[in-house]
Amino acid sequence: MNAPEHETGMITVAHTYRDQLVLMGLASYVSRIGIPRIPSIHPGAAAKQPDDGLIPTVARPTGNHFATIAFEVANTQDQRSVRQAMKWWFRNSAVDHERGAVNLVLITNISHDSLATIHFELWQRDARRPRKAAIWLKSAENTPGLMDDPDL
Q1: Which of 26, 89, 90, 152 has the greatest CB tally within 10 Å of its CB?
Q2: pTM exceeding 0.70
Q3: Closest among 40, 130, 19 to 94, alpha carbons compared
Q4: 107: which strand partners?
């Protein structure tokens, strides 16, 4: 059973993407995949279970197809472990395969440091480095908060 922070992080990420698709008028073309076990395209390789993902409904309506975007949320996992999961998605799916391919992996890493930081990494197939962002849910004692800014 996943920790509440993990579940909240995963659901928030999935719903945020889904909400943006609704606003763009694409809701009927994309579905969340949930958390099924998805087998590799390589015989004998282990299956993998994403935290969630998005899949096009028109091109691949049924079956054990790969998500176009896979979500991995790390609450208690270390960075190495969650990056191994990201690599699995790219190595075990293929653009020219009938089951499709994972083209993006969004890693959400929940840090339990004093700033309650959430780190995001967006990995694209064949990219050497991710796009990164971070959110700090708490401010450091020596950092002015929003209300402490004299210009506001």
Answers
A1: 89
A2: no
A3: 40
A4: 72, 121
